[in-house]
Amino acid sequence: MNIEELKERAWSYVEIQARTKVTSVEFVESFRLLGRDDAALIVKTTDPTFPECWVIGGDTPINLYDKSKFNTADEAFSFHTGIMMRMMDKNYVESDEAPEKIGYDAFISHASEDKDDLVRPLAGILKEYGFRVWYDEFELEIGDSLRESIDKGLVNSEYGIVILSPKFLDKNWTKYELNSLVAKEIEGKKVILPIWHNVSKQDILNYSPMLADKLALSTENMPIDEIAKKLCKALAK
After folding, report:
1. Given this model, what pLDDT does residue 187 score?
2. Which of 8, 38, 180, 226 could form a disulfide with 58 if both were Cys (CB 3.0 to 4.6 A apart)?
3. Which stretch of 9-18, 64-73, 77-86 has the lowest confidence by average pLDDT?
4. Is 181:188 a contact under the CB 8 Å cutoff?
5. The listed CATH number (3.40.50.10140, 3.40.1710.10, 3.40.50.1000, 1.10.630.10) that belongs to domain 99-235
């Protein structure tokens, strides 16, 4: 992805689409999601009613978003990704089976360090209750493409169970998964089912105010089997 070329495209795009004069284009952050590289740019204009906007794009078609409605690059990118994923979902092909046959009730997004004490037993209980859960140890076999399998799980899962732990908050890979799940919530449907594991509300606020605002289950005051039962109620809706 050529950032300078993208900045030139963004400059022209905003002037044409917003019918205003652009004064500067600044690169903010790059993202990689579903095998595609995109960038977030801030474009400043001379229009007092539309002084700044985000332009998101690269491998995906570029689009502009009002900066007054999206405070961070992550928020604008998540919204942009939601649009792209809805477009992809209509033509998504990873299997000869229909999506309803390969679909999952939930995708478990987690850090590998949390497998032994929480994720593996939780996934096992949900499986025993009859729910189809995308969990890497259930779904991946030798020779499988990790990225392709995760992408398929993300697109074809009804919910995302997100294990928010100190290790989760430190990793880039989990951010990739979380952005995908946030994008699926754009249309207003609840998708993310958060579980707090050895983290405080302040930790989550620092990481994502949007996640901190969601009602979450916590391993601090609830055993795994009780967490699994509450998740089952949510997944069965």
Report:
1. 59
2. 38
3. 77-86
4. no
5. 3.40.50.10140
